[in-house]
Predict the structure.
Amino acid sequence: MKTFLLSIYGVFCFVLSTIAIQSDSCGQKISGAGWKWHVQLLHIRQAPAQAFQCSGTLLNQLFVTTAAHCLYDLNGDPLDKSQLEILLADGENRSIIRTFQPEPFDVERLSNDFALLLLDRAVVFNELVAPICLPEPYTVLPQIVHTPALDGKTLPVNSGVTCLHDAQTLFGMMYADAICLGQFEKTHTYHRNAGGGLYVDHNSSWHLVGIVMYATGPSRVHIAYIGGVLLERHLNWTRRVMMHYTESIPLSETNCKTYVGDANLPFEEYHPIVNIVDTDENISARTICHGTLVSPRYVLTTGRCALRAKRIFIHYGGEGNLDWFRVKDFTSSGRLSLIALDHDARKQSGVLTCLYWRTTPTQFNYTTRIAHTDSFVRLEGIQVQYRVDEPLKVQYYCSRYLYHGHFTSPGDALAVKEAGESFYRVVGILDDTLGCEPFDYFYERPKTVEAINVELYLPWIEDTVWGCS
């Protein structure tokens, strides 16, 4: 019965999320109207000239999807998104303010060649512009797949083994979630015709099932073979990202308001107060890392810390006022992990922490608040540089009075107090200690390291911790 209820809950969440992110009619089949969701990704090489970079597909008023390698140049270096623009079917342009990838694109192995682009302002739907539909999970892939790259023609869908073999022949490597159409011939020319969508006809509307990675053929206008990547594995992630940036108030902020109302938030005395140990024994337990309690049941820390974690103890403040928890399991995304506790932490203890978020964040520099339980050192002098879609740059000084012992641990949080708020928000996580060499102390030299930008992971955190609550 419990399994049945959880299944119904999952379907209910899926329906709600689909309605929320694609409320307008999507994938409408209108004869002669063309592909209303097909867009072009342009590279502004020298204004006002623009060069075609890739194609893309409009998912809703704010999001376009394309191949991740379209965000890189031919040398494999990332492009500045300020130099990219989206051209809609009606001739309107949009700038790109954010890019999202479920997993980092591997330039060498062509893995995870899928990206979402957040536009600077909403698209106005009309007779020329409309969104594609996202498919339901586990949609059976038919033998007929359409794509604008073929200009109305179709090619048969090949087996997965054939796709892997062809990619090995063409690139000398194999990539995951492959889909391919048509007949590959070694004599054909490779065409950089990527990023466009692969569509199927389902329930009288068009649904997006894949992204074109490359095409081959005797010429650009005579495409005989298309290689691409299936989206099924990333569908839930795609919906969560779209929901997070389409909702006026995301789940993390809704729960933050609850935590603020329940108790004073941390960083007033010391932080972190969530200690991660690598043994099941309470006696002589050694803290290997720290974490941040983002809900009564989940601790946010680094992936390396989660791999070694056996137990968690949380110090609520005051003599002997602490609880022990076992690690139930953990889930990871990139360099971050969420550890699930075997029982709830105290909700009104003041240790539940808010996360930094902005729908359209802007770059800034700030002085962070960080402290380390073991040495009880506040380091208000640490400067953090925040840049959208990038790791945090952390600059600190090796002061002489900090010479003895480490003053940070992996998993320590970087916090910032927003204007008008009385509490601190977590904006970053340290993946290692802030180290200093002897001469760094003597000369008090500035040092710069990278930290994990938590804001990049908010959709994943919300999906794991709160679901569609």
Q: What stands out?
A: The radius of gyration is 25 Å. Confidence is low (pLDDT under 50) at residues 1-12, 14-20, 373-380. The CA atoms of residues 275 and 290 lie 5 Å apart. The chain is about 15% helix and 35% strand.
